[in-house]
Amino acid sequence: MPQGQGRTYAAVIGVTVGMLVAGLGVPLAYGRFDNGATTTAAGQSQLSQVPGSSSSTLGRSATAGATTGPAAGLGPAHAGSSSLGSAGNPSVSGLGAASGPGGPGNPSGTGKTGLRATDQGVTATTVKLGVVLLDIRALEPLGFAQPHFTPQEQQQQYQTFIDQVNREGGLNGRKIVPDYKTYNALDTNGAQSGPAICIQLAENDKVFAAIGVLGGNMDVCLTQQYGIPAISNTSQITEAYSKSRYLLMSLFASLERAAANWGDLSARTGIVTGHKTGTVSSDTPVETKPEQALVDALKADGQPVTYRAHLAGDQASAQSQLPIEIQKMQAAGVDTVFLCTNFVVAIQFVQTAEKQGFRPHYLVSDIGSITADGLVQSMPSSFDGALGFTQGAFARPEPPADTKCRTDFNKATGNHYAAGNEAAGTTLFCWMVKAFAEGARLAGTNLTRLGVAYAYQHMTLHLGHTLPGHLAPGKTDYADEMRIIKFSTACKCYQPDGQAMSVRY
């Protein structure tokens, strides 16, 4: 990769564009709930207010007749597991009771339906939902593109499914009102950067929740700093989920859990038996933490790592380190390399290694999105046969739930998106809208952020192109299975290489 192009990509690394778009390669079908639940806690506008307090126990209705429709049914039978302060399910401190009808935080009072404003962004008739669109048009000259993925097209797709939810009764009688924001993947400190959009949604617009492409650490900002529920199509380090009080939900496993399972399956399947292994990671928490989990899992399976290449988080410094680290790996006899890094560093490592005559067997994963076909097109011939460990299902033909999302969109808009990559964004956005809607319904008519945090831990999802997983108290990172895929330079693509496997961690 030319140095100038590498530096351009470096800006992308910090905002994890690779992970964001890799989610598009795993079209998602929306899920359902086995049960509903009531909730009593009302929320305040800032997570830092009323520290350590939680005014009620979820699972019992605060007001007579407060639970209707899909949210009904859990009630006292689950009282032992529904308290957010119970073991394995920490309290969402600071999200205390909102003011009564007509008071501060509830200017609308009670509506004709008997509903009332219950939290920030929730009135008697509406729920304000932040929806973040991704603008990657600046990357198109570098060959990085996705069909039907302009911000305008993304908004049309989201709006179609939001309209569908609203026509079908909304969120227990309230309609979703989207608040669209465009996130520019190359903007690190401007109006379209992750931090700026977080502030716009939380402080200026006061949304109730957010979904979408939550790059630039936007997911952490929204959930931890402002106590706003968020559904992201990327994963985070483990502590991000607990520190968010489980307001953060993701499709993929946490980075550490995914890395541990990657290492464990590599050992259990015999792939690394008899080989000397090395790891490559950059000096950032989103890479150092999963790399350590990978090494620990391999060691626990009797497969210690021979050499660990730790690169600087700064892209220019990392590039200068690569030749030296590759020489050290060669000298140590490494023949199998785990690329536990972002796709930019991974590409540079493989290209530099090939120039130096180092052609090891490569093992990659969803970490850094190196399992996404579109991000490894420039890999040299030594990447042929690389094994990817993915939580994506690689399902063919298109799952029925994905087909419904796509055909519903086409019918509503007059478009003709075909199955596969052309409709990848459509099915992803369909899943996100439906998942948020069902979570809000599960939280009950007394809709609060506490209730949504509870819902995110009790949802039963069935995702089309994602391997099975589950959510549970203290677990809002979904995926629980992996499968191996193999890269072929002939088609510049991955192909399935075996069945899905259950994981240990």
What does this structure look like?
The strands form two sheets. Strands 6, 7, 8, 9, 10, 11, 12 and 13 form an eight-stranded mixed β-sheet that branches. Strands 2-1-3-4-5 form a five-stranded parallel β-sheet, with helices on both faces. It is globular and about 75 Å long. Helix 9 links the parallel strand 6 (277-282) and strand 7 (307-311). It is built from 14 helices and 13 strands. It has 505 residues and is an alpha/beta fold. The protein has helices spanning 3-14, 17-22, 79-82, 151-167, 194-204, 218-225, 238-243, 255-268, 285-300, 315-331, 343-355, 400-413, 424-442, 449-456, and strands at 126-135, 175-184, 209-212, 230-232, 248-250, 277-282, 307-311, 336-339, 361-365, 387-390, 481-488, 493-496, 501-502. Mean pLDDT is 79; it is low at 1-22, 25-94 and 96-108. It has two domains: 14-34 and 104-253 and 397-474, Response regulator (Rossmann fold); 256-390 and 482-502, Rossmann fold (3-Layer(aba) Sandwich).
List the helices and strands and how they pair.
Blueprint: H1 3-14, H2 17-22, H3 79-82, E1 126-135, H4 151-167, E2 175-184, H5 194-204, E3 209-212, H6 218-225, E4 230-232, H7 238-243, E5 248-250, H8 255-268, E6 277-282, H9 285-300, E7 307-311, H10 315-331, E8 336-339, H11 343-355, E9 361-365, E10 387-390, H12 400-413, H13 424-442, H14 449-456, E11 481-488, E12 493-496, E13 501-502
Parallel strand pairs: 1-2, 1-3, 3-4, 4-5, 6-7, 6-8, 8-9, 9-10
Antiparallel strand pairs: 10-11, 11-12, 11-13
Low-confidence stretches: 1-22, 25-94, 96-108
- Chain-averaged pLDDT: 79
Q: How many DSSP helices?
A: 14
Characterize the overall form. Answer: globular
Distance between the termini: 36 Å
